[in-house]
Amino acid sequence: MSSVLDNAQPINFYRPDYHIKTPAMRSPEYVQMSTAAAITLGLIPGRMYRTACTHCLNLLVTYPEGCRANCAYCGLARHREEARDYADRNFIRVDWPAARYDEVIERVRAGAGKGQFQRMCISMITHPNSDADTLVLLKKWVAALPHIPVSILSNPTTMEKADLIELKRLGAEIFTVALDAVTPAIFERTRGKTVDSPHRWEKYWQAIEWAAEVFGPERFGAHLICGMGETERELLEVCQRIKDRGGHNHLFAFFPEQGSLMEDWPAADRGQWRRVQLARFIIDYAGGRIERMTFDAQGRLADFGLPESELSALIQSGKPFQTSGCPGKDDEEISACNRPYGDSPPSDILSFPFALNEMDIDGVRRQMIGKIKKGLLNHNG
Prior knowledge:
By secondary structure, this protein is of the alpha/beta class. 29% of the residues lie in helices and 12% in strands.
């Protein structure tokens, strides 16, 4: 994921002797992984713009039949099965090459990534074998690499509370739910019956409640996508709801996946995205609450509910604009899951996978100008 990724199209870095195509590839023997993870492991060539590695090893269960859901924004959606082999579909903007799971474990054990992996995440899909195979992958990882904690990106549609209890018993540290859509109407339009997909808003929230009970505070979270037609108030109301239950919010900027049902939907508005990033951080880490924030008639943030000096200091830190996800080992406010360029190209970074420098922060301030107090453009508050 180098400077050649400075565009909206995924680049194929597969090595012919490494990439195994369907129908031979199937979990739990094989897993797919993000391009950043494959580069960090040394499985494919490449380099990542302004960052040496990804600190979270993002793995994805995989089957020749593919995911049986049909989410309108997703590169793995069922409706794409005639367009590309499942193993070759891009997902959250980049390719997800595959490898034998045993090789992945051995490479990490041997020091691939120079010991910088702070977390591993198993991402489930909607498939009859996904639940059972996730348990197999989890047990093998915990036995081989117990010092690297595991997160589960779940598929609530196929799960019951007993499944969460078993995942925790086997060593999963954090459980996350990809709610993505933040209102029932948007969820139905993008993930439900409207697009012939099996997911239901109520079941996803049930899984979040189970996670709060089973995993406990600071050990569960929700993925939320900004830019699918919601207002800023609606998204932040969900952030507050998750926070009040003890969880964290992991934000994604909407990016139109080529070949998805929403490929013509515009990417997330930059001003909206920056405001939501900042307000989410205030809710999750700065003691703020949505009740102290104000919104205009269109549901856009007008005031963040903090003194201007505190707000300016948060912006100047750059932390609110880094990728949000499961925490690392050094700073709970900084995600181990930095997902390099999963929602934008390096030329227009939305989720920064590294600490922002002064130029980056100036760019963020410019994107917010006119939408928040102009005094925030002054570095001294």
